[in-house]
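Researcher: I'm comparing several assemblies side by side, and this is the next one on my list. It has 443 residues spread over two chains. Same procedure as the others: predict the full complex and return the structure.
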Amino acid sequence: MFDWRWDFTFEILPRLLQATLNTLAAAGIGYGIAVVLGLVFALAQRTPSRIVTMVVRECVEFIRSTPLVLQIFFVFFVGPQFGIRLSPWVAGMIAIGLHYSAYLSEVYRGGLESVPKGQWEACTALNLSTTKTYFRVIIPQALPPSLAGMGNYLVGIFKDTPMLSVIGVAELMQAANAIGGSHYRYLEPYTMVGIIFLAISLPAAGLIRVFEAWVRKKLGMN
Amino acid sequence: MSYWEFLAQNAPRYLDGTLVTIAQFFLSAMLAILLALTAGLMKLSRNVAVRWTAGVYIEIFRGTSLLIQLYWIFFVLPLFGLTLDKFYAGFVAVGLNLGAYGAELVRGGIQSVPKGQWEAAYAISMSPAKRMYRIILPQALLNMLPPWGNLMIELLKATALVSLISVTDLMFEAKQINGSTFLSAQAFGTALIIYYILARLIVTPFMRWLERIMARKLGRA
């Protein structure tokens, strides 16, 4: 019926683990982009201009409600049409970073809105500058409620990296596809990829909970 | 070639693809709801084995990614003697994956129903099945509808992945059109807009409507 071959498994394991490093790098870089760009999107929705707010809001909604794979294809193929050639890595990082920045901007927005109005008024009363208001008063209080969401999306971005294989980024899924194609054996590579993902995402989710509790304690909340 | 000419030429293919995407969406949504309810209730069972079974399902499907599950179901399951046609493999994978996320919502929703409701149902000696069906689930449903709205958008987006096992959905047609016309911005851009319309003008308003109906039925409008 089915035969799991251990020798084959061990033969391909080094290659898969090598590719796992690429997957982790892709998740890390993509998350880095998303964390920064997400903050830009969130703050752009707080400007006094109603038009800017509306346009940014609609862009965020657009990115959030269309499939990531399609966005990856879009970024990768549209560049060359206008004479810009992007490598799979660059296109992939732009697409995945942009996609998750839309999600993270919602997380930040929720966090910022959870800060009581009195805190803003107190800052105005104390004549604090906008920068000081944000960095010394608002963001430290907006951070703890945002952490859970941020952590979830870190794991989320990691689990979405296999989609980068569609444009040929050499990550874990791509390696498994290549092995499967050249050996005509899909059982071991795909199963091992699943196990590697489980082995990373389950402990990561646990660690994030611990980290969140630690930050809350550090900031003197509950 | 202007964009309108492009659209006129390729409209039938986009339409075909959109219909397949909608079919995939409905089938996987039904499977996901069914699995989420089952696994969510099992997670609250007093029996350890039942709880554990649901937990394994949820952790496996939430812990790995949909693409892996899709390839596994399509390429590896046949080795175990279970061959699914690509169309079935597509919505089964999406349904299994999103069902695991939904199960956590169901569990949370049921746990958010105040304890007094359970006690009141017990006090008027309702059977456990009736208590769940008439008292707890309707209130839980109202609590969990907003996150389910987000999950339905995720589900719609997830169906785009079935194009990778050659189900001829919207994403697949966009790739084909891109291959034959080399107009990538138009080919993929149109598909992006169609997905956006489906999500923003159909799925989201429907979920909002459902929330209002449920709130009214429970007298909380």
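Model: For your comparison table: Residues 3-43 of chain B form the longest helix (41 residues).
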